[in-house]
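Course exercise 7: structure representation. Students receive a sequence record and must write out the corresponding structure in token form. The form below is the worked example handed out in class, using 3beta-hydroxysteroid-dehydrogenase/decarboxylase isoform 1 (405 residues). Read each field label carefully; the graders check that inputs and outputs are placed in the correct fields and that the protein name is recorded exactly as given.

STUDENT ID: A-19
EXERCISE PROTEIN: 3beta-hydroxysteroid-dehydrogenase/decarboxylase isoform 1
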Amino acid sequence: MPGEAADGGLGDALDVATEDFADGDVSKKVDVQKALKGVNCVFHLASYGMSGKEMLQAGRVDAVNLNGTCNILDVCHEYGIKRLVYVSTYNVVFGGKEIINGNESLPYFPIDEHVDPYGRSKSIAEQLVLKSNGRAAKKKDGTRLYTCAIRPAAIYGPGEERHLPRIISLAKMGLCTFKIGKANVKTDWVYIDNLVLAFLLASMGLLDDIPGTEGKPVAAGQSYFISDDDLILLPHVIPISKPLVASSTFILPAEVYKVGVTHYFSFLKAKQELGYIPIVSPREGMSRTILYWKDKRSKDLEGPTIFTWILVVGGMVANFCVAFLPCYGPLAWLKSISLFIFRSVSTVRLVFILAVAAHVGEAVYAWSLSKRVDPANSGGWFWQTFCLGIFSLRFLLKRARRNSS
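STUDENT ANSWER:
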């Protein structure tokens, strides 16, 4: 949300100005009618299926991105709303082929060649929005709907939950092991405050009652690329998952198809027609983002990599099976190894009981300690330490030392 952009930033100013909030589903026309009643400018940000497991839900993607957009256009027509700023995507022209300093003259990427429903639906929706520009209101009072589309680069900033959080969570789990594309792949991003500024300028570019201007608004029927005006090297150490792995932390094949290719665009048109110039530099934007994530990390439950989970939990399960279950299949050789080390089944059972007792004791201590240093996550610390023992407790002890210093 814009209001989460940055402390003291443009997003906070907008957050203060926000008075009403309507909870609804953009794919349901009745909800859209309730939300847009009495407004004169609409910012259509709602979309679904950009990344993660949501990309696999084609029906929901179309319901939100296509049906939702049609509902908004219909309600704007019914209510006589004058301005609609549609938030689009680079994917309407980009489909996995290199684009260097592209501009708005590029043709739409062929609809039937999109590899994911998100890019296809957003392309169709943008074209619907732009073709609705100049449409007369239903009540025939001379009011017309003016529309434009903002095509932002990858969005980052405090509160962003789609890009950086996935990379951070993968790194914490120790899963950043695959390379995608070449090391010199470049793209551009946009800081949230800069994007909000573009929204506001676009909405003003749709005004048709500015003194001294004639004809249709400058932004009417137009599309604009928006970025920070700074190229970055794409993170190319990102894990890949199979399509069947429905986890929001992994990157899916459709994303791999695009992420390893250089693609960036010029915002010259937005600068000339809307007066858009980034107000937050990439360095400042990334600094704010890093500070946000450092603060967020200090409040979240910390833990070891997924390999530690597999080793510890797998070891405990294997120990239990050897100690208490009959020897069938793989358990036979596993039991042989255990007996070679511990010499007897009774010793294996004793080791398991002592390990469980240690985990329980460490979990209780973790719960008690977290009540003082991290009360919001005390339950999480208990169960994580119960499963992992000292491998979890050491993270809590580090946090306790940081808090006391």
